Task: inverse folding
């Protein structure tokens, strides 16, 4: 090879190498820049956890405050009224919804103006304790931009509105939680117009001075104060999954929902206790116990099963039992540092300025130069010292005895639930009919019928009923081994179970109570008690099971023992004793015993087409008009296109879902007909606000 050719080749090769190196370096630079840019972009998780402000959001959102007050009477009523007026004074954009059925609520709401409403349609226990999951569900139906759920005695000062206006601008759905401290003395009140706070001498006091006074007097407790929460009406739920049927004010439900909201990672969840001025008044001689927040020791001892029920639910559902109080340490805190609002993460020792205060600043990883950053660091250190040493453990709650039972004998349960005429509605159910039981109960609640009791045939339905707030008792003589799917009419299981009913009715009659026995597969269009009471003593009123549309309705063995009314009188008790004795030796269900004893075998005691007369006790049996009390085979009502409309047109008082074989077929027929009042997925009664959501709903 010539030298000139060699140098030409060498120069070409050198140029090629330089070109390749340039391409490689250029590519490396691009990759590095891309990686750097990617690292600088906030992750989705960071965005959810630390959203920024949206300047386009209106500054004055509509706010609905939800609360569950007691009766407005005595010192409690005065404290509730002070709190309620403080809410209305916050902003003209605040409306208040009071949950409850106490007779004092409408008058109190009316006296406070057009921004206060009463909502009676949530789920309560038979003793009047509201269900937390029903309260939250109703609150979430609200179309207000912000919903607040708060204790009825918690007073709020104006900085609460400032905080809501601030967080309303966040560009992601959020959940705010805060704990209100307690004070033993508060000598200030609002003027009549509800605009200014006044001293005892009537002179006005500035809100700043009021806050300073509270700072000196309050017993601060971020862990054990009365917690309240607020959230925006966004697209995301508060948490994943279903909220269990916790009883409101009976422990754990606030901790549970906060823990699940954090675990779900759907909303930005933060604690604003430090920047919201709120408090509640307490009697200094009766400080709330640490174990059960916001409840007195006496209440805890007398109603312990309610707390045990919440503990059991907290153990069975969600992750609170396993995570304990860890969620409190993971809560981002909202604090105010000079004029800036900061979100701080105590666990990671990080502060996140908001709005136009700059980008996220990792204060523990770089030297702070600016004066603002140094102030932020100082605020972070102060908050660290406050929160890091705080013990918010509630593990003692999970040490409660788990066996769940109502501390009522049958006699005491009857005395609590009976109406003024000493009348009881009795039903009996096993676990296989739990959903039908609840639909029956929900319908009675809609009709404002509260004087009912439930006999549980097995332990499963007993535990379920206690958690659902039902007045339930166990029958110690109930048959065992009750089939789940094969206990319908005609089966041996059915024969054994029905004999429990007449025996219990007799027992309750002897205790001095009138009894309306109703199976759970009977839909009540109206309350039948006013009608059946008209027949007076020594008359047993029963549904006819006759399906022929013409002819007598008291034909042999056409007395339906699934719906009848018996007065507590000597003659009726004597007649029922004969029925129970006859059924105890029969190989059939109790239903033939009713007819054969009271109407005579073959109908020998019939005195008309709808009556019988039992000669020894002189008790008359009256068979009810089937147009008002139709059975499941009468006029094919269950086959009508619109069963509810057809029965309403006829004036039905009840409709029996019998004359159909099999539990599942019975359930399917009733659900598809629209005569169903219970949502088993949420364990809630269906309310009117479940079915329709008005654009103007609060």
Result:
């Amino acid at each position: 090879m010539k030298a000139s050719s060699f140098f030409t080749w060498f120069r070409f090769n050198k140029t090629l190498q330089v070109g390749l190196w340039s391409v490689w370096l250029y590519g490396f630079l691009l990759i590095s820049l891309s990686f750097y840019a990617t690292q600088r972009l906030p992750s989705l998780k960071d965005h959810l956890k630390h959203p920024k402000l949206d300047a386009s959001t209106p500054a004055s959102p509509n706010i609905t405050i939800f609360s569950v007050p007691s009766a407005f009477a005595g010192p409690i009523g005065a404290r509730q009224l002070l709190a309620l007026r403080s809410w209305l004074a916050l902003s003209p954009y605040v409306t208040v919804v009071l949950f409850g059925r106490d007779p004092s609520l409408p008058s109190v709401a009316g006296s406070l103006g057009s921004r206060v409403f009463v909502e009676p349609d949530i789920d309560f226990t038979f003793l009047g304790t509201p269900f937390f999951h029903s309260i939250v569900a109703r609150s979430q139906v609200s179309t207000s931009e912000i919903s607040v759920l708060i204790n009825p005695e918690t007073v709020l000062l104006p900085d609460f509105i400032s905080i809501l206006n601030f967080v309303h601008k966040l560009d992601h759905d959020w959940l705010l939680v805060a704990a209100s401290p307690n004070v033993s003395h508060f000598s200030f009140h609002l003027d009549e117009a509800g605009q200014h706070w006044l001293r005892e001498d009537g002179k006005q006091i500035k809100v700043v001075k009021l806050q300073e006074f509270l700072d000196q007097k309050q017993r601060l407790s971020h862990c054990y104060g009365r917690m309240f929460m607020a959230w925006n009406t966004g697209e995301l739920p508060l948490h994943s999954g279903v909220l269990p049927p916790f009883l409101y004010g009976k422990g754990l439900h606030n901790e549970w929902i906060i823990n699940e909201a954090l675990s779900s990672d759907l909303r930005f969840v933060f604690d604003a206790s430090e920047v919201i001025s709120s408090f509640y008044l307490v009697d200094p001689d009766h400080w709330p116990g640490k174990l059960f927040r916001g409840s007195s020791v006496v209440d805890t001892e007398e109603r312990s099963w309610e707390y045990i029920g919440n503990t059991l639910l907290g153990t069975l559902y969600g992750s609170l039992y396993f995570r304990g109080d860890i969620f409190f340490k993971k809560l981002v805190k909202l604090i105010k540092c000079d004029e800036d609002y900061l979100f701080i993460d105590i666990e990671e020792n990080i502060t996140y300025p908001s709005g136009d205060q700059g980008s996220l600043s990792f204060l523990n990883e770089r030297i702070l130069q600016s004066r603002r950053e140094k102030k932020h660091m100082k605020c972070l250190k102060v908050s660290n010292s406050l929160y890091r040493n705080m013990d918010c453990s509630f593990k003692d709650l999970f040490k409660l005895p788990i066996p769940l039972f109502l501390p009522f004998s049958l006699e005491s349960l009857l005395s609590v639930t009976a109406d003024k005429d000493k009348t009881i509605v009795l039903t009996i159910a096993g676990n296989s009919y739990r959903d039908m039981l609840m639909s029956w109960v929900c319908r009675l609640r809609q009709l404002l019928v509260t004087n009912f009791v439930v006999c549980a045939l097995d332990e499963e339905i007993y535990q379920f009923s206690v958690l659902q707030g039902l007045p339930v008792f166990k029958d110690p003589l109930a048959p065992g081994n009750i089939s789940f799917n094969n206990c319908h009419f005609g089966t041996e299981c059915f024969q054994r179970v029905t004999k429990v009913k007449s025996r219990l009715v007799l027992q309750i009659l002897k205790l001095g109570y009138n009894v309306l026995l109703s199976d759970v597969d009977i839909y009540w269009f109206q309350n039948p008690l006013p009608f059946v009471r008209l027949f007076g003593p020594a008359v047993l009123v029963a549904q006819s099971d006759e399906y022929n549309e013409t002819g007598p309705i008291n034909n042999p063995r056409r007395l339906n023992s699934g719906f009848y009314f018996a007065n507590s009188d000597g003659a009726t008790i004597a007649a029922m004793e004969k029925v129970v004795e006859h059924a105890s030796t029969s190989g059939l269900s109790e239903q033939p015993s009713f007819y054969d004893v009271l109407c005579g075998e073959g109908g020998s005691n019939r005195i008309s087409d709808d009556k019988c007369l039992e000669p020894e006790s002189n008790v008359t049996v009256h068979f009810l008009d089937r147009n008002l009390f139709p059975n499941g085979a009468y006029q094919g009502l269950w086959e009508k296109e619109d069963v509810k409309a057809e029965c309403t047109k006829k004036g039905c008082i009840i409709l029996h879902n019998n004359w159909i074989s099999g539990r599942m077929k019975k359930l399917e027929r009733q659900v598809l007909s629209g005569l169903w009042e219970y949502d088993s997925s949420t364990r809630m009664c269906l309310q009117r606000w479940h079915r329709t959501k008005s654009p103007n709903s609060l």
Remarks:
- The chain has 23 helices and 27 strands.
- The first strand starts at residue 63 and ends at 67.
